[in-house]
Amino acid sequence: MKLPILILSLFLLLSSCESSKKQSEEQLTAKKQSIDSIAVPLSKQLINSILANKETQQTVDKLKNLELNTLLTELNTDLKKKVFWINIYNSFIQVILKEDDKGFEDKSDFFSKKQIEIAGVQFSFDDIEHGIIRGTKFKYGLGYVDNPFSDEIIKALQCDTLDERIHFALNCGAESCPPVRVYTLSNFEKVMEENTKTFLSSETTFLEIENKVITTRLFQWYKGDFNLSVIEYLKKYNVIPQWVEADVEYSEYNWEKRLVK
């Protein structure tokens, strides 16, 4: 009689252990999902508020108060990094310029000034664009020169692979900038491709008689970021006819301030 009772007790003990293990695994999964659902949704919430002309301070405060470890843990893929930081860049351009647009008069100071607080760390627009999203590239290196002086936190957050399309997603508040869009993990490729084609189409003119293509100066400033020539890149997005072999000129960049209405 004792043997069956012993076996039953052992079975109940094993079942209890298995149940506890499963519960612990579920808790860990839930905790991970919780971590994964903080920063990126906040960036989406902020840019949505900007586009809807709604109050942003509460979301800005939440971004300030994020744990740095949470940010580092969540942004563990290039996709998450690009979605988060593009939304953050575009949002804070609007937030800061709407509060005080005088700083925009000195462009160099405006973009290099550390005025964006995320997870207790102060970032500049240059930190986000050239350090994190472009992978610690030197701002004036035409895409060919790395920046050896980047902060350790920038290196920890930077994208592993450079996506040249980010130049057609980042809006610096100027008239010649690409339009502001909302990026998410699920729509990133679709919206990025649409924005790239739309922006390049609006900024490019083919003069057939002169055999000349006039397009955005972004190609000139970040030449090394592109694996294709300007002509081939424009063909890739069907901005110019496939048969075109023409000289390229770059239009003047219009730095007149333009904010989201």
Mean pLDDT score: 90
Radius of gyration: 24 Å
Strands, count: 5
How many distinct folded domains? 1
N-to-C SSE series?
A: HHHHHHEEHHHEEHHE
- Poorly predicted ranges: 10-14, 19-36
Measured as a percent range, the helix fraction is 40-55%
Portion in beta strands: 5-15%
Major sheet characteristics: 3 strands, mixed
Notes on the structure:
With 261 residues, the chain is mainly α. The protein has one domain. 51% of the residues lie in helices and 7% in strands. The protein has 11 helices and 5 strands, in the order H-H-H-H-H-H-E-E-H-H-H-E-E-H-H-E. It has helices at residues 2-36, 39-51, 57-64, 68-74, 78-99, 107-112, 125-133, 152-157, 188-203, 218-221, 230-236; strands at residues 116-118, 121-123, 205-207, 212-215, 247-250. The strands form 2 sheets. The chain has a 3-stranded mixed beta sheet with strand order 3-4-5. The chain has a two-stranded antiparallel ribbon with strand order 1-2. Helix 2 (39-51) packs antiparallel against helix 3 and helix 2 runs parallel beside helix 5 (78-99). The longest helix has 35 residues, at 2-36. It is globular, with a radius of gyration of 24 Å. The N and C termini lie far apart (82 Å).
